[in-house]
TrEMBL record, chain A:
This is Calcium homeostasis modulator 1. Pfam families: Ca_hom_mod. GO terms for biological process: ATP export; protein heterooligomerization; protein homooligomerization; regulation of monoatomic ion transmembrane transport; sensory perception of bitter taste; sensory perception of sweet taste; sensory perception of umami taste. The chain crosses the membrane at residues 21-37, 49-69, 185-204. It comes from Papio anubis (Olive baboon). It is a multi-pass membrane protein. It is found in: Membrane. GO terms for molecular function: calcium-activated cation channel activity; identical protein binding; voltage-gated calcium channel activity. Keywords: Ion channel, Ion transport, Membrane, Transmembrane, Transmembrane helix, Transport. GO terms for cellular component: basolateral plasma membrane; plasma membrane raft. It comes from the Eukaryota. Belongs to the CALHM family.
Automatic annotation (TrEMBL), chain B:
Keywords: Ion channel, Ion transport, Membrane, Transmembrane, Transmembrane helix, Transport. Pfam families: Ca_hom_mod. The chain crosses the membrane at residues 21-37, 49-70, 178-198. It comes from the Eukaryota. It is a multi-pass membrane protein. This is Calcium homeostasis modulator 3. Belongs to the CALHM family. It is found in: Membrane.
Length: 345, 344
């Protein structure tokens, strides 16, 4: 009992802190990935924008989906959404709560990536170097004389210092400083905006539907814990099943040997005396089996766990395995005794 | 301390957690291996592609095989696939489930290597520098085609005299790296979308079948482990009894000789075979182990375990003799008990 309570507490404390921990680790990993990633602007007119847009958007999407995939609650949400109602009604508010909480945690790493990218500036520089106002920043008189493709080709090389050859038109440092400044301003605005949004959502939420929120939070935690405990109970059952099966196999072998060796050389008395009575350790294992001792019953138990989840009401002793295909629809009406009178007219 | 022990037990309890741990370890080893590997492009026309592609594909293959080797469940799966049906019918769904879980975990480390190689770019640049279209780069206008090919082959080597400080080399190298990174990120994105969809959509298809297959594949794994443990226990018990038996028989032989010397007329007593002392048999339920007490019996037990696994029905009374004892067919020995359980 004590062990069970310790396990329960461990699971309870583990759920929220585990996901928060994963979220924090992914945010750090996101920043680390950016610094390890070797940004490599192609410096060709058509490709710059595509490359930068890709680097700004693809890794955040990957991180977001990774955050969702690593969260076990995703498959739990899908299961809860797709299960037949059985004897337990489905509550869409709980599903919405689960989805929101998962999405919020998964959004942190992408936001960190976008913020770090903008604050660093290389991506922005690569994307918008061809849109720099040459007339304002460089030798404005020379710019109109150049054909547009030539101008684009020149400006596209701004992010690459070793191949830039347009110093006569526009000093590279000027363009780089200009674009990085804009990028950092955008980056800080983005950070401020997201932080403000998060703050507003967090402080304002209790003003609306706090009761519904508490209920959704409770039942979503409940569903998660119930699923974990079911998996653990199944594993315990499988272990007990295996132990008893193997013991019976050894006993059966012994039994077999005795039948084969009745004219016998080694009918050892203690062994034959012990075979009919199950050893003490086996009793404990058999209790863990909770009466489910064969494959067909176990399969039916697993089927009805999915198709017909038990109601959220403890203390009712109705049998669950009522034969195949009983989906249930609600609690059964109590039986009424009806007396009929037959007249002999 | 208690919490750590519980944490350890929690991870050890499920074989899935152990396998996840091994998979993660292998991925970390891959990252370390890639970063410490000294990439060395040959910069010769025909060898570049071979080296680059070889390095992109051969280590992942080796890592995949390592992943399969390190995973105990791959052996369990093959055993379950090849065993004779015996008293327990075989379920192909379980074998498929185990196969897919083993493959998924084994694929993690190779994918990490391939993605790292693509995002880094060196392999790609080395392999495809000769396949670049020189038209894209204006610097090759005044070179003969063979000169161009020779030049392109040297692109991956920054320090070579021909291409050192050449803007053309930098442009080609930059272009190829950019392409490599784009492919790397696209592959990552595709994989992660596939993983996400697989995780989301799985409960929409045959959830009950999935629960059953997961339970029984876990069972098969546990049963294998427990059988190995029981055999070890039995071997220990057997060895112990054998040794004690030997000492006891030696002792009684000495006693017998002593008696014979004292009483010359009597026929020598056959060395008695006393029961091994009961000190270690504390009634802890090991009687079923002590019954198997000879080499032939042990061999027979092991071959029966392989050729005729017991049925998944614990209510059946022990008795392996007589063929065709399956949990489907009612038998003379079990009477009415089996007929209650209908097949799902």
């Amino acid at each position: 009992m004590d062990k069970f309570r310790m396990i329960f507490q461990f699971l309870q404390s583990n759920q929220e802190s585990f996901m928060n921990g994963i979220c924090g680790i992914m945010a750090l990993a996101s920043a680390q990935m950016y610094s390890a990633f070797d940004f490599n602007c192609p410096c060709l007119p058509g490709y710059n924008a595509a490359y930068s847009a890709g680097i700004l958007l693809a890794p955040p999407l990957v991180l977001f989906l990774l955050g969702l995939v690593m969260n076990n609650n995703v498959s739990m949400l899908a299961e809860e959404w797709k299960r037949p109602p059985g004897r337990r009604a489905k509550d869409p508010a709980v599903l919405r709560y689960m989805f929101c909480s998962m999405a919020q945690r998964a959004l942190i790493a992408p936001v960190v990536w976008v913020a770090v990218t903008l604050l660093d500036g290389k991506c922005f520089l690569c994307a918008f170097c061809t849109a720099v106002p040459v007339t304002a920043l460089g030798n404005g008189s020379l710019a109109p004389g150049l054909p547009a493709p030539e101008l684009a080709r020149l400006l596209a090389r701004v992010p690459c210092p070793e191949i830039y050859d347009g110093d006569w038109l526009l000093a590279r440092e000027v363009a780089v400083r200009y674009l990085r400044c804009i990028s950092q301003a955008l980056g800080w605005s983005f950070v401020l905006l997201t932080t403000l949004l998060a703050f507003v959502v967090r402080s304002v939420r209790p003003c609306f539907t706090q009761v519904a929120f508490l209920k959704s939070k409770y039942w979503s935690h409940y569903i998660d814990i119930e699923r974990k405990l079911f998996d653990e109970t199944c594993t315990e059952h499988a272990k007990a099943f295996a132990k008893v099966c193997i013991q019976q196999f050894f006993e059966a072998m012994n039994h077999d040997l005795e039948l084969g060796h009745t004219h016998g050389t080694l009918a050892t008395a203690p062994a034959s005396a012990a075979a009919p009575t199950p050893p003490d350790g086996a009793e404990e294992e058999r209790e863990k089996l909770r009466g489910i001792t064969d494959q067909g019953t176990m399969n039916r138990l697993l089927t009805s766990w999915h198709k017909c989840k038990p109601p959220l009401q403890l203390g009712r002793e109705e049998p669950l395995l009522m034969g195949n295909g009983w989906a249930g629809g609600g609690p059964r009406p109590p039986r009424k005794e009806v007396a009929t009178y037959f007249s002999k007219v | 301390m208690d919490k750590f022990r519980m944490l350890f037990q929690h991870f050890q309890s499920s074989s899935e957690s152990v396998m996840n741990g091994i998979c993660l370890l292998l991925a970390v080893v891959t990252v370390k291996l890639y970063s410490s590997f000294d990439f060395n492009c040959p910069c010769l026309a025909r060898y570049n592609a071979l080296y680059g592609l070889g390095l992109l594909l051969a280590p992942p293959l080796a890592l995949f095989l390592c992943g399969l080797l390190a995973n105990r469940q791959s052996v369990v799966m093959v055993e379950e696939w090849r065993r004779p049906a015996g008293h327990r019918r075989k379920d192909p769904g379980i074998i498929r489930y185990m196969c897919s879980s083993v493959l998924q975990r084994a694929l993690a480390a190779p994918l990490v290597w391939i993605l790292l190689a693509l995002l880094d770019g060196k392999c790609f640049v080395c392999a495809f520098s000769n396949s670049v279209d020189p038209e894209k780069f204006l610097d090759f206008a005044n070179m003969t085609p063979s000169q161009v090919q020779f030049f392109l082959a040297k692109v991956p080597c920054k320090e070579d005299e021909l291409v050192r400080n050449s803007p053309a080399r930098k442009a080609v190298s930059r272009y190829l790296r950019c392409l490599s990174q784009a492919i790397g990120w696209s592959v990552t994105l595709l994989l992660i979308i596939a993983a996400f969809l697989a995780r989301c959509l799985r409960p929409c298809f045959d959830q009950t079948g999935f629960l059953q297959r997961r339970y029984w594949s876990n069972y098969v794994d546990l049963e294998q482990k427990l059988f190995d443990e029981t055999c070890c226990e039995h071997a220990r018990d057997f060895a112990h009894r054998c040794v004690l038996h030997f000492f006891a028989s030696m002792q009684s032989e000495l006693q017998g000789r002593g008696l014979h010397r004292d009483n010359a007329g009597r026929s020598p007593e056959p060395p008695a075979v006393p029961e091994p002392p009961e000190v270690l048999d504390s009634g802890s339920g090991k009687a079923h182990l002590r019954a198997i007490s000879s080499r032939e019996q042990v061999d027979r037990l092991l071959s029966t375990w392989y050729s005729r696994k017991p049925p998944l029905d614990l209510a059946a009374s022990p008795g392996l003799c007589g063929g065709g004892l399956s949990h489907r067919a009612p038998t003379f020995a079990l009477g009415t008990r089996l007929s209650q359980h209908t097949d799902v």
